Amino acid sequence: MKILILNSGSSSLKYELFEMPQKKSLQKWNIEKIWIKWWTKNHKEAIKQVTSKIKNIDAIWHRIVHWWEKFSDSVIINNKILQEIKDCGDLAPLHNPANIEGILACQEIIPDVPQVWVFDTAFHQTIPQENYIYAIPYKYYKKYWIRKYWFHGTSHKYVSHRACEILKKDINSQKIITCHIGNGVSITAIKDWSVVNTSMWFTPLAWLVMWTRSWDIDPAIIDFLSQKEGLTTQEINNILNKKSWLLWISWQSSDLRDIETGDSQCQLALNVYINRIIEYIGSYIALMWWVDMIILTAWVGEKSPIVRQKIVEKLWYLWIYLDEAQNNKKSEEVIISTKDSKIKILVIPTQEELMIAQDTYTLVNAIK
Question: Model confidence over 83-114: pLDDT tens digits?
């Protein structure tokens, strides 16, 4: 079965073609600068470019960033579900409309091919209400769905499952902390294959510190800055989303690769980044009463020995020690803790697309 994985971004289209159940990637590409008239006019034109190169597509997968708290698994797309996705567009204004554009284009171009949605929020649906509800009037949750939400679910699901395969452990009896550390950052606590908590909240702003985003700040700062600087809430929101952390603490760059070897101001930015990660790991160990393994993934987790070293050094009190030779490896499945460490630290390159292809294969097979 040939499964086309489509990830429609606000101005890009990423795709990968899998042969299932062989788990074989046949081709992948990224079309950028959509909506720029001299490049690619819209998502429909981009998808035409993709499908014209591929014969005999059996199923199509689409990523949806946000779908409230509706589903814990992937679903076959129909008109009812499509309308519900449109209705929750306010919660993901940059992502959901682009995702919908990709779906509508496929329905028009290759209408007879089954389409499947996989949700970033799906894996986290086991989180108990006391860990996602805000201490504000409950009516705002009922009326506007204001609560903590979670993303990167497919990545956390894949790496936790893969780590248990490597260590030959039963995932239903493990306490796991997964750290998706890239441009976007999220940390998840998984106990007995149920997500207990994760660091993402109502929007990306209240996650960990990221390359251009602040972390979860005191909300009074918004009003304070508005009065002192004469800024609108939209202007402050832009600062918090696009002009914070690495660039504006370091004064030099928003790219971690530049920060790692920079001056004292860069080191301050890096220390803020590391400390926030350690805070979440520590709180999740307390929440689960221990942890059996910690997994590092995504761009930084997979490719930055410096960040990994700093994380492990701050966990020494848990009898975790770094294997320096293993830690120097990049983009490999590797255990970077020593054999005498009480907790295993693994680096697992995320393969969200493969996880998605497996879900899609299972769903489409069920309706044949």
Answer: 777 776 666 665 667 777 778 888 888 899 99
The pLDDT score that the predictor gives to residue 12 is: 64
Same-domain status, 51 and 200: no
Estimate to the nearest angstrom the gap between the alpha carbon of 333 and the chain centroid: 19
In our burial notation (b when 16+ CB lie closer than 10 A, e otherwise), range 203-222 reads: bbbbbbbbbebbbeeeeeeb
pLDDT at 37: 46
Q: Please state, as a whole number, how many other Cβ atoms lie within 10 Å of the Cβ of residue 238.
A: 13
Residues 113 and 230 in one domain: no
Distance between CA atoms of residues 352 and 339, nearest Å = 29
Of 11 and 316, the one with more pLDDT = 316
Same domain assignment for residues 209 and 345? yes
Which residues are the active-site residues?
120
Residue count of the chain, please give it: 368
The encoded tokens of residue 174 equal: 């493990």
Instruction: Print the domain residue range for 309.
Output: 170-352
What are residue 345's DSSP bridge partners?
294
**pLDDT higher for 79 or 252?**
79
Which CATH number does the domain housing residue 346 bear? 3.30.420.40
Helix 153-167 crosses helix 352-367 at what angle (to 10 degrees)?
Answer: 100
Q: How many domains in the chain?
A: 2
152 within domain boundaries: no
Dump pLDDT digits (tens) for 164-207: 999 999 999 999 999 999 877 899 999 999 999 998 777 766 66
